[in-house]
Amino acid sequence: MSGSMQLPAMWRDDEQAPNRLVIGIGEMVVTTERGSRISTHAVGSCIAVCICDPHAGVAGMLHFLLPEASINPDRASAHPAAFADTGIPLLFQKAYGLGLVKQRAVVKLVGGADMAQTSGAFNTGRRNLLAARNLLWRNGVFITAEDVGGTGARTVHMAVDDGRLQVLSGHSQKEL
Question: How far is residue 72's CA from residue 174's CA, in Å, rounded to a whole number?
Fold first, then answer.
């Protein structure tokens, strides 16, 4: 972002902000802490799954790395949030435990970039996106918004109160 662009106070990247929950790759958080925000950085071929039920005051974010736990069962056992097929169900289970209702859930996906910028054999970003969409669809969960694909990494900030997302990529920003 250019130095002249001023972000609203809730989006300023204040490392000392007491209501800022930061997750890394292969991590997740679910909270009912009003006024806080959840952030994650370096969402490239990974996917950030962001869920919110504003009525219940529940929000959560998962930053998964790979589509299927079968790729590395030992890692999946120790870190289920690293994989779509184990992390997404865990995210929803924790959110249901805090009052999220599936029919009211606002679900947004960010990431799935082609970081290698090739049409090679791995296509991790595309495979991650397909895994998330398929798992959500099979479970009757509708995706409200997406910022997916491309070739660059993103930073995601989510407001817990209403599920608004700010997505930063390079020198651009957008709100979902």
Answer: 34
Q: Model pTM? A: 0.89
Name the average pLDDT for the chain. 89
SS (H, E, C) the chain: CCCCCCCCHHHCCCCCCCCEEEECCCEEEEECCCCCEEEEEEECCCEEEEEEECCCCEEEEEEECECCHHHCHHHHHHCHHHEHHHHHHHHHHHHHHCCCCHHHCEEEEEECCCCCCCCCCCCHHHHHHHHHHHHHHHCCCCCCEEEECCCCCEEEEEECCCCCEEEEECCEEEEC
Which residue, 54, 61, 52, 56, is CA-closest to 20? Answer: 61
Cα dihedral 47, 87, 38, 143, rounded to 10, equals 60
The mean per-residue pLDDT over the stretch 155-171 comes to 95
The CATH number of domain 19-175 is 3.30.1330.200: yes
Average pLDDT over residues 68-76: 94
Strands of the sheet with 20-23, listed across from one edge: 20-23, 37-43, 154-159, 165-169, 172-175
Task: Show me where the domains of the chain are located.
Answer: 19-175
